[in-house]
Amino acid sequence: MSDALDKLLDLLDLEQIEVNIFRGRSPDETVQRVFGGQVAGQALVAAGRTVPADRPVHSLHAYFIRPGDPAVPLVYVVDRVRDGRSFTTRRVSAIQHGHTIFTLSASFHRPEAGPEHATPMPSVPPPGEVRRNAERLERALGGPLPGHYRDGPIDLRSVGPLPVEAAGDPSLRTTRNLVWLRVDGELPDDPLLHVCLMTYASDLTLLDTVLLGHGVSWYDGHTSGASLDHAMWFHRPFRADQWLLYAQDSPIAFGALGLARGEVFTAAGDLVVSVVQEGLIRTTPKPVPP
């Protein structure tokens, strides 16, 4: 297991400080705000720890209300909304400085039989034939990345262009984004941990899908953004330490808001997760050369 993954698992191992109240922290990084995937993953951990293990999560809906402060702990308060015969519902609020910064509603479902069908996986080269995104970013930016980007806990391998590459080559611009991903190490057989790690990873590239069609990137000094809301549906069991294809597209961007959708497939082609996110995308005009 990599050191970065070990640190991420430690972040997801929340401290229970009272019935229905948990405390989390952020990694020691020089950033302005807490990464949204971290808050969503921690909130799902808090919700899942109040639900019997034989009821896996099947959906979550979340809102990012205020930027998180990485310098102080996050307090997660779980509301046990309903414990039914088939469904269990939880609502989680993340609190910092006396304010709610994030809310999550999650539904857990007792497995049962029913009709089955699924969208087929797109045809893509295997992950072994795709370069790591960190290597491509270093080449595009002309220098080494900070350690927490270069040696992150999630191995990301985009089949198509990165936003920084599309920014320099209009022929690469697209509203589709295909990314192989897996956590960088072996995990225990804990289904809740695997879905929480996928929740964390799902926020890493979705807004990139909005940028890809517009020739802008997070590294151009003129583009900023933030996740606003996030929804996920977990269809089948999967392992986050095995390769997953994250097939994403962006149907619309307007008024500084961009919508992105994702479908997650196992390497065997099973559709296991669906994702939708809306994000804030702000751009400032580039200076005109004299």
Instruction: Give the integer mean of the pLDDT values.
Output: 92
Number of helices: 7
Percent of residues in beta strands? 35-45%
Please tally the β strands and state the result. Answer: 12
Classify the helix fraction into a percent range: 10-25%
End-to-end C-alpha gap: 52 Å
Major sheet: arrangement of strands: 1-2-4-5-6-3-9-12-11-10-8-7
Unreliable stretches (pLDDT < 50, length at least 5) are none
* Cα gyration radius (Å): 19 Å
Structural class: alpha+beta
In this structure, how is the largest beta sheet organized?
12 strands, antiparallel
Q: Based on Cα principal axes, name the global outline.
A: globular
Q: Give the helices and strands as they follow along the chain.
A: HEEHEEEEHHEHEHHEEEE
Describe the overall structure.
With 290 residues, the protein is α+β, with helices and mostly antiparallel strands. Helix content is 21%, strand content 37%. The chain is built from seven helices and twelve strands. The protein has a twelve-stranded antiparallel β-sheet with strand order 1-2-4-5-6-3-9-12-11-10-8-7. A hairpin with a 3-residue loop joins strand 4 and strand 5. Helix 2 packs antiparallel against helix 6. The longest helix is centred in the first third of the chain and has 13 residues. The protein is globular, with a radius of gyration of 19 Å. The mean pLDDT is 92.
